[in-house]
Amino acid sequence: MRTKACIFDLDGVIVDTARYHYLAWKRLTGDLGIRFTEKDNEHLKGVSRMASLDIILEIGGKKLSTSEKEELAALKNKWYLEYISTMTPREILPGTLELIDDLRSQNIKIALGSASRNTPLILERLKLKDYFDAVADGNSVHKAKPDPEVFLKAAEMLGVEADRCVVFEDAYAGVEAALNAGMICIGIGENDILKDAHMVIKGLYEMDLDKLIDLEKQLGNE
Ligand code: BG6
Ligand code: MG
What we know:
This protein is of the alpha/beta class. The protein has helices at 17-32, 38-42, 49-59, 66-84, 96-105, 119-126, 149-158, 172-180, 209-220, and strands spanning 5-8, 109-113, 134-136, 165-169, 184-188, 199-201. The protein has a six-stranded parallel sheet. The structure holds 6-O-phosphono-beta-D-glucopyranose and magnesium ion. Magnesium ion binds at residues 9, 11-13, 18, 45-46, 170-171, 174.
């Protein structure tokens, strides 16, 4: 196969933490008196904690000092951690483990590429650490998606060229990051939001080796 590595986003791809991020931001915006909708939340997906807060404050037309912002970001994270504290491997989204096993059987390397600084904790809770050959996350990468840094870093850690990597992403910013890295991107979610991706599916349970081979062929023929 042409694909040598698959890089998975975490929140919203492997586990439904995107929901918990939304709930924690919703609680914070409620306290701040800022109107915040699920549609606004789409702009936050894949975006770092502080950059997300900046977007929210912009929506609410509020200007705060750095220390006030740090306090709010810490509060949001405290609530988020409460939501994920009871998470178990049963919350790994359908199809994830099967797909990773199939990819591995073809000697395709597996990496994680997430903006989240909570990545180590989540992988631990989900007992997923051993599934990844490399992890690039918000602790090791500083430029937020749509910058390609997180995916390029993952590819570098694996020793695989960017154009041999396939990224799975649920965020608009994440799809752009993958494309900016020169990688194939499979969007997880709604076609109208992720239309720039090379292919969009509802969840990893819809993906298998045959579909990946078909996509490679289709892109090779373009
Ligand atoms: C991304 C999420 O994966 O991680 C964003 O899509 C989140 O919603 C970002 O803001 C940073 O996460 P954390 O866990 O470091 O606050
Ligand atoms: Mg995501």
